[in-house]
Design brief:
It is a single chain. This protein is α+β, with helices and mostly antiparallel strands and 226 residues long. 21% of the residues lie in helices and 50% in strands. The protein is built from 2 helices and 8 strands; from the N terminus they run H-H-E-E-E-E-E-E-E-E. Strands 1-2-3-4-5-6-7-8 form an 8-stranded antiparallel beta barrel. The longest helix is centred in the N-terminal third of the chain and has 34 residues. The two termini are 39 Å apart.
Length: 226
């Protein structure tokens, strides 16, 4: 049976810290989304000037050259049409406690750089289990040529961690609040297909089975944009 820690002062502080972090992430997402909409409105090219009335002329007047905004409009519009979602799965390990790790996440893009979505970490070994779902906020970086296929990212989130140990005396499972922070890098191996690696530092302010931290590394991840 899962035992939930008593709501003592430390537990209340952990919940408050997790709630504050979640609110801060949502606020950043709203600010980023608003900023993107405003910048898109300012970047709108000006209306073309009205055509001059037709006049007889000894020779045809050459057409005006395209403006820089007109020339750059197509690539900018293409970049804005990126897929709105990204699914990734990976395998690796955890440390302290050490376990085999399976990870999965689904990112919903708010704009070109910011995404938010669920992340699940599942670690298993003989007699031990970690199950850690969280809601994470991700910032994606885009590099210039010739490194445009590389996509580093940083992220943070809040959730819960469930730990189970068969050989433990007394209670062998527990659950508590978890806060994580980390990052990684993806490489676009094909259109809408990414190969990468991902690390997270997971803190549990209210100890879970006497543990207040574990490190996780998805050594290999594969992702699809859709």
């Amino acid at each position: 049976m899962i035992r939930v820690n008593n709501r003592d002062q430390l537990g209340i502080s952990a919940l408050a810290l997790g709630a504050m972090l979640a609110l801060a992430l949502l606020a950043l997402a709203l600010v980023a989304l608003t900023g993107c909409a405003m910048s898109g409105a300012h970047a709108r090219p000006p209306l073309a000037p009205p055509a001059a009335p037709a006049m007889a002329a000894p020779s045809a007047v050459p057409a005006p050259a395209a403006t820089p905004l007109q020339e750059e409009g197509a690539p900018v519009a293409a970049a804005a049409r990126r897929p709105p979602m990204l699914f990734k799965g990976g395998i690796g390990f955890t440390a302290d406690p050490g376990q085999f790790l399976i990870g999965a996440e689904l990112d919903f893009f708010l704009n070109e750089n910011f995404s938010i979505g669920p992340l699940l970490q599942f670690g298993v070994e003989d007699g031990g289990v970690i199950l850690a779902p969280s809601a994470n906020f991700v910032y994606h970086f885009y590099l210039e040529d010739p490194l445009e296929r590389l996509r580093p990212f940083v992220q943070g989130g809040v959730g819960f961690a469930y730990l189970h140990e068969d050989d433990r005396k007394g209670d062998d499972d527990d659950i508590g609040v978890m806060i994580n922070i980390g990052g990684g890098i993806d490489y676009e191996i094909a259109d809408r297909t990414l190969l990468g690696s991902h690390m997270l530092f997971n803190a549990m302010p209210d100890k879970v089975l006497d543990e207040n931290f574990f490190f996780s590394w998805q050594v290999v991840t594969i992702g699809w944009e859709f």
